[in-house]
Fold each of these.
Amino acid sequence: MSTKRSVAFHTLGCKLNFSETSTLSRQLEQEGFEKKAFTDKADVYVINTCSVTENADKECRQLVRRIQRLSPESFVVITGCYAQLKPKEISEIPGVDLVLGAAEKFNLVHHLSSLTKGDETKICSCDIETVSGFNSSFSVNDRTRTFLKVQDGCDYSCTFCTIPMARGKSRSDTVQNVVKQAKELAANGVKEIVLTGINLGDFGKGGDGGKKHEEDFFDLVKALDQDTEIPRYRISSIEPNLLTNEIIEWVAKSNKFMPHFHIPLQSGSDAVLKLMQRRYNSAFYKDRIESIKKIMPHACIGVDVIVGSPGETEAYFKESFDFIHALDISYLHVFTYSERAATKALDIKPIVPIRIRNERNKQLRNLSYQKQQYFNAQHIGDTRKVLFESIKQKEGDQAMLEGYTDNYIRIVTPFRPEWSNQIVDWEIA
């Protein structure tokens, strides 16, 4: 290694991964590492992986090959969900020096100190059942918006999902610690915090083996609303069965929590939901949407959907499509099912051909576009508060500012320095 060691990071997957990568980056910078772009030569490359889809696994391998061509003498570290699930498989990828599982991710600095190039790949993993600690993290790409991790792991057993195997049992920070972090972020100029977790609504199980705190997610929402100076909060994603009326009603009257929900559905067919072992049915989900819209008709609602999961017949897909079409929602995140090792879904029949999965994905993405356009059109003429980013965007030769309304409508306008990282009243055109 050079005297001034350098490190480059690449993140695959969810916003939670991005918040953890950002924290790892700050840890290494505090130890004297110089941060480099992933496309530059660096002494150490860290890839924080996802394993929700097969593509994430493939991308990890491609990234390692790219590093080998660019800088074969550099150290390559793989961490994240893929590293926890398949450490032996990753260790056999040529060029990988260190594999860190869920319990060792935040001990990266320690492991780098004892790493020697050319040694056999070092695997630091564990039985996921023994992982009980909670490591707080947050992302700061600019001062405007931060993704703050307050919960990790999941106790659910959805048949398509590897997350409990990769991240372990549900556990979370304390309300006191989260409030303290929010105050520190506010002092550094952050204007919006997005609360993130694997199963965010399950907040309250501690980092001490899952022992229940005497607090829950609603307590966290109230404390952040009342005790911090952050002007805007968003709830990243919350299971419908954990989105209570009291949370919805609090957001409706809050000046800080934005009227924006992201609520996983996965399927609008009750038969498929049962096969997935989800904890609600379509009627319950519809009730949650209607509860929000009744008191916040302007609220933006995003929805996760999986297409092509085992057992999703053509009739079930049509049932799901029609259900989503009738819902008063704003946009979809559409995922194409991919087989994941050791999941119960592998035993469910019939298997949907890849071609059909891709066709269904396209149909729902088209529906999402229509939903988004309709939602935006409903608010033309409204004046809403927009938080503009602190970073300039480029559109041809023109410098631009991008921001989002409280209800998550994207606004782009020519750059004005006085609006950077500021909340501005904006008439939607």
Amino acid sequence: MTESPILQVQNLRKLFPAQRSGLFRSPERFVHAVDDVSFDLGRGEVLAVVGESGCGKSTLALTLLGLETPSAGKIIFEGNDVTSVSGKEQKALRRHIQMIFQDPYESLNPLMVIGEIIAEPLKVHNLAPDKAERAARVRRALEDSGLRPAENFVNRYPHELSGGQRQRVVIAGALVLEPTLLLADEPVSMLDVSIRAEILNLLADLRANRGISIVFITHDLATAAHFTDRVAVMYLGRIVELGRTRQVLANPTHPYTKALLSVIPVPNPRQRRQRIILEGDPPNPIDLPPGCRFHPRCPIAQDICRGEDPALRLVAPAQQAACLLA
């Protein structure tokens, strides 16, 4: 019997009203930040969501966490529809879904010591009221995040730590509630290259040791290749290709995925690909182009692409899907 996925996203949309200008009333317009996104996430699986800035990756994560209200679609977590929960239900949900934010310099309170920062979620959720138990959970979270021994960090302030150590504190703050799903929004983009691999290895260890499922958001396919099981490529609010990471990297199907892969540096000159440089900027997410939304920048666009909007469909191999016109 196949184990049910921990997360199911069905036709999810998040539209933001665009500000009107002028004296006369005009039809309401919307920014299509997330536009008809669907995917499943297995238990203990790591899914990379990849795309350039402005494609909707972070908005997708905030919507999954409940910090943004979906405009349409469903979010099913642990078999329960959590699309529009609020109040106590939303608070209980946050115990099981935690976020690792991009910037460790901004996401930590500079006036609190590390021990207080990690213990705060326990107080908010009324967990571990006993002081000794709370201290033990803080210590475990710090050490599971690679800050050992924890006693060397609990009484220090964020400004006394390096960038990599601060990001580990952010991870510890998420782990202290023992979640089953982590949403990691560009968790290594603010770090030195020498530290990135350590944080990625840490996330891989957490998946292996705790069985945590991870939605890993990044703009870098090379980073996604490091430890993810599947990859979803987003463009203008929509997933245009979805499949096993190795399959997508070895045999990209959508022209946007091919362009992203073509600019990844390759040390061996014999294995270097011809670079595909996309011309122009992504279209305005308020006024989406007709047909395929990638066609204004696509190097192989045809007339049919300007009139027909392709849906995500299976391609060879069967575990891979892409938005392609037949």
Amino acid sequence: MKISMLDVGQGDSIVLQTSEGFNALFDGGSTSKKNTGKYRIYSYLKYAGIRSLDYVFISHPDKDHVSGIYELIDMCDNTFEIKNIVLPDINDMQGTLSEIREAAYSAGINVLHAVSGDAVSVDNLNISCVHPCKNYNYESTNDYSAVYLISMRDFSMLMMGDAESKAEKCIIQDVKKSGGGLDPSGINVLKTGHHGSRGASSEEFIKLVKPETALISCGIDNSYGHPHKETLQRFTDAGTKVYRTDECGEIMVRVWNGSYETEVFKERKK
């Protein structure tokens, strides 16, 4: 399996591809790059030989996570297809999520809604939703970001979307109650929540998931100051190796037989 965090500037887009031919996309958008779907995401898919996405997992509706999804839906034809789009299952689905659902229906794409406990299993790969829980009481779109645990044999990766402290506390509570599907020994890779903002990746949460490696997607000199120095310090204190798209460009995690390695393609000067 290879998992590629694409360089989309200030945004998020991650492609998962297995040797058995399973392909998935986690989010796809940017607020600093135009036509991200066509020129960043689709170009990578074409380069990687991906003509069909089994699943597109959308964490939440912020533009920097979904702007390119609309483009990909419009590009579906006899040479490229999206089979399923997965949205977080929330009580009041309006605005962008509703628009994406309708666009998917119009293009003949199946739409699914995920809550904690739902999972997709293919061969040795398992993708399970660990947040939000059913009837979750959220305050912002970041709160209800769908969080997914990817596991293949002994490898694990947690995809946080833009989840911040409130969502992290919910996940921590679930883990303390039932294990929440997380291995107490920790995870290999953390897709850091909300681009490394100070409100995400709390000390308590990092202690829970014990990531060996953290990936941060953010734009060069972005106006938000992502990633924040407080968050980076928490990773440093935990002994977690950090890779950032604003410094490294595309970041790829290659997984085989339970082992993994991280590759970068454009080491930039700070």
